TrEMBL record, chain A:
<keyword id="KW-0813">Transport</keyword>
<keyword id="KW-0472">Membrane</keyword>
<keyword id="KW-1133">Transmembrane helix</keyword>
<protein>
    <submittedName>
        <fullName>ABC transporter permease</fullName>
    </submittedName>
</protein>
<feature type="transmembrane region" description="Helical">
    <location>
        <begin position="83"/>
        <end position="109"/>
    </location>
</feature>
<feature type="transmembrane region" description="Helical">
    <location>
        <begin position="254"/>
        <end position="274"/>
    </location>
</feature>
<dbReference type="InterPro" id="IPR035906">
    <property type="entry name" value="MetI-like_sf"/>
</dbReference>
<feature type="transmembrane region" description="Helical">
    <location>
        <begin position="21"/>
        <end position="42"/>
    </location>
</feature>
<feature type="domain" description="ABC transmembrane type-1">
    <location>
        <begin position="81"/>
        <end position="271"/>
    </location>
</feature>
TrEMBL record, chain B:
<dbReference type="InterPro" id="IPR003439">
    <property type="entry name" value="ABC_transporter-like_ATP-bd"/>
</dbReference>
<dbReference type="InterPro" id="IPR050319">
    <property type="entry name" value="ABC_transp_ATP-bind"/>
</dbReference>
<keyword id="KW-0813">Transport</keyword>
<keyword id="KW-0547">Nucleotide-binding</keyword>
<protein>
    <submittedName>
        <fullName>ABC transporter ATP-binding protein</fullName>
    </submittedName>
</protein>
<dbReference type="Pfam" id="PF00005">
    <property type="entry name" value="ABC_tran"/>
</dbReference>
<dbReference type="InterPro" id="IPR003593">
    <property type="entry name" value="AAA+_ATPase"/>
</dbReference>
<feature type="domain" description="ABC transporter">
    <location>
        <begin position="2"/>
        <end position="236"/>
    </location>
</feature>
<dbReference type="GO" id="GO:0016887">
    <property type="term" value="F:ATP hydrolysis activity"/>
</dbReference>
Amino acid sequence: MAEPAWRSPGDTRRSTRAVRVSVSAVIVAAVVLAVLLVPPLVRLDQQAVDLALKLRPPSPAHPFGTDDVGRDLLLRCVYGLRVSLLVGLVAALVATVIGTAVGAAAAAFGGWADRLLMRLVDTFSSVPHLLLGIFVVAMFRPGVWPVIVSVALTHWLSTARIVRSEVLSLRSRPYVDAAIAGGASRWRVTVRHLLPAVLPQAGLAAVLMVPHAMWHESALSFLGLGLPAHQASLGNLVQTARGSLLAGDWWPTLFPGLFLIVPTLAIAGLAGAWRERLNPRRRSELML
Amino acid sequence: MLELASLTAGYDRRDPVFRDVSLTIAPGEAVGLLGPSGCGKSTLARVATLLHRPDAGRVTVDGHPVRGWRHRAPRELRTAIGVVFQQPRLSADPRLRLRDLIAEPLRATGRRAEAAGRVAELAHRVGLTDDLLSRRPHEVSDGQLQRACLARALVLRPRWLVCDEMTAMLDASTTAALVAAVEEYRREHGAGLLAVGHDRVLLDRWCDRTVHWASLTGAPAPAPAAEADATAGAGV
């Protein structure tokens, strides 16, 4: 027999991981291409209302069917994904920058600055962050930016904790001692030696946060607090579909729901693989 | 003068690593400090390089009493003392090429302009080729990395040099090259040296005087064990 009759659990795990990573990569690539290329190439108006065509089930002309005012759902879903992805990316990026800055500052300065900043983190963490997010969006007129600000301001806490603990462990390395003996200022040590070392971790945290931020955007929009109703976002689409679901029209809920779940799982899958490479001892888990 | 006067230091105030240790090094003098592992030599080296605050005692560098430690020590005092640690892997930032590693203290102190010239001069002095200078720490051997760490310690022309087990992990020829580079620097600049180690033969040949850790503390020396350790180190 050419092949051994058994496969070790490690082999199996590695091959399922490889499948998961390639499937995730294909989905993420498709999503990125769709949201970038469809709007400029397909010159269809996603807002075009045609009441004669309202709530049609999926058909060759409208593969995802139409919604309650006759708009094409496939187009609405792509536009919705575009908005949700934008909100997720920008919010995750802003949250990571805030979290990295706070965590690094707390660890680098230590003492009372550390205690003050970490108590601030604890204070923010003690409030459920959806509630805090609602509070933030409620202060502004509905739109994309309030949602981004709201998600970003509620999601930097875990990054701050991760970066702080990472920097604390790096700070006692002999190469930091050598830098101090070489006359480096606190700022120089932080910017030159500590931050570059935590950037991979922070980048990973940012990618892991994108799905989370997208879910939050959807939750806010679903509650009617996020984006204005006419603007397609995955949360808005699911929200408007709620009524028709009870009447037995399943497609306006199913397709936006899939558009939310599948890409976010794919992004989380890729991030999980990245985390296993960064830190091979920890088994991957989806952090949603 | 580098004066370490009745120092008590450690990582737990209730249980310091050592108590009441004193050592004075005259300008230009080379002092070897021998001791068994775990006795506190490295902690003393960290205090002497202003990297670890002692619980009690005084450190005076060229007449300036030290009042702050680590970042709180004035930059002039910190840079007056060059330091080389035992493990080059841990004391080199893994992201910096050796060239940048050596030049880093110049950049950190705003003397960027001198970097290229000084790096070339020191690389020659410690025996690093141009090819090695453009590699990162994981692409060179321990010995090559330790050469770069020594060059980094010398780049600001310190008046004092503290070598904490600098050659403990290295082979004989690298040890000889590093010691020769230190001695050449000391001849030119009249720098004082504190060489910490457990290799009696090396320290005896290298330094003007060799002191045993037990003689610094005033505590009764655990003579036989320490002696065995020292000879074991010398035999290798």
